[in-house]
Amino acid sequence: MSLRPERQAPPEIFYNESEARKYTTSSRIIEIQAKLTERALELLALPSDGIPRLLLDIGCGSGLSGETLTENGHHWIGMDISESMIDIALEREVDGDLLVSDIGQGLGFRPGSLDGAISISAVQWLCNADKSCNDPRARLKAFFSSLYKCLARGARAILQIYPENTQQLEMISTAAMRVGFSGGLVVDYPHSSRAKKYFLCLSCGPPSTSTPLPKAKGEDGGSESEDDSEDEENETVDVAERQRPAKRLKNGKKVKGRAWLLKKKEQRRNKGVTNVPRDTKYTGRKRKTRF
Amino acid sequence: MRLLTHNMLSCNIKGVTKGFPLSIEVQRLDTKDADFNPDFLRNIFPKLEWKAFHDAAVSIGLNDIPEQVDPTMLEDHEFLQKFHHALLEVHLEEGALICPETGRRFPVTKGVPNMLLHEDEV
Ligand SMILES: C[S@@+](CC[C@H](N)C(=O)[O-])C[C@H]1O[C@@H](n2cnc3c(N)ncnc32)[C@H](O)[C@@H]1O
User: Fold this and answer.
1) Which helix (H) or strand (E) holds B113?
2) Which chain B residues touch A101 with a CB distance below 8 Å?
3) Rounded distance between C-alpha atoms, residue A14 and residue A84, angstroms
4) Which residues of B fall within a CB distance of 8 Å from A110?
5) What GO molecular function annotation could you give as one example from this UniProt entry (chain B) (predicted)?
6) Per-residue pLDDT of chain B (122 residues; tens, 9 = 90+)
7) Do A165 and A25 share a structural domain?
8) Which chain B residue's Cα is nearest to A133?
9) Residue B14: inside a domain, yes or no?
10) Residues A270 and A199 in one domain
């Protein structure tokens, strides 16, 4: 079974030239990073006065997330530990300023200097102790306490993360709350194991009752169709990026039955999809293994 | 790296209490056009450490940033253009940033400062 990237090597090693190259060539990765960034910006809830803000992109990588910030008119500073990823960002001629920096060593910015921060698919890397000198808890603490300091009062940080399990999720959120952040977790598409996305939404300063935590997407089964499309996209990125084990076909047993399939097909027809195959007596039957 | 970023950066080596402002060692500069947006300039102005911005501008050869400023100047178009140029259009491409307290040198290559700390600096 393939391991999550976080378990294979430290980020500066994993994100080598060839891995970084994927970020310029895979349209799926590009699209997903852009989508996640749009969502993070939405959750960042900056004033809608059209004034560009100065934002931080934590684990900016090849600058895909940053490009979305630029498209939305903002200035940004991106930091990443992988020089190969930064090189790709330079190649793409992104508009943000870039820094080679390890967020686990803390962020070196003046207090209150930034209007907000986003991070797309990076912070879970801090949970790995890939060198003897790396203590995940100490690194999370250094990261969050410095992040808290460098944000302007009332500013927010939106961190989209891929935690490996609930312990990791808790370790990250606890570290954030401990340094004084308020806020919490927004889980988009919570009912879909693949489309599910975690956004840790943090505010600098005391919790305010006037700004409740934003609502998650796809919480009610109602937007299931959207779930599906997300599913497909993620599946492909997952393969390239996360290498999930193929759960569905474990020892050739189908996890989802005929009834489920018929329902899904019906839903797609109702949505106006025209190329849904007819329902026949073969629908949902196990295929013979042929060689 | 532009002076905008320089004005926010601070050295965070363990034990350093005054890591700002980093001084700039210039080997090569570059100029790139940026969209002129007076609203952005007015909005960022109170967040800048002006003296550090002024000194940094001088150290990269921009001598038309006034040492003393007051918010009324933000209505002066000519001032705003100089401010804009120094803040957003001049890039340090090759050189270094130097911690004011320890003298530690952070190299800047291809416009990117390398702020990674050594193990004993964390
Ligand atoms: C999945 S990539 C996402 C890149 C970018 N946000 C995007 O949307 O394209 C995760 C990035 O996090 C970076 N990263 C991991 N650990 C880091 C650390 N300790 N400090 C800085 N960056 C880190 C990796 O180098 C990698 O570029």
Assistant:
1) strand B112-113
2) 114-116
3) 10
4) 7-10, 20, 49
5) protein heterodimerization activity
6) 999 999 999 999 999 999 999 999 999 999 999 999 999 999 999 999 999 999 999 999 999 999 999 999 999 999 999 999 999 999 999 999 999 999 999 999 999 999 999 999 99
7) yes
8) B119
9) no
10) no
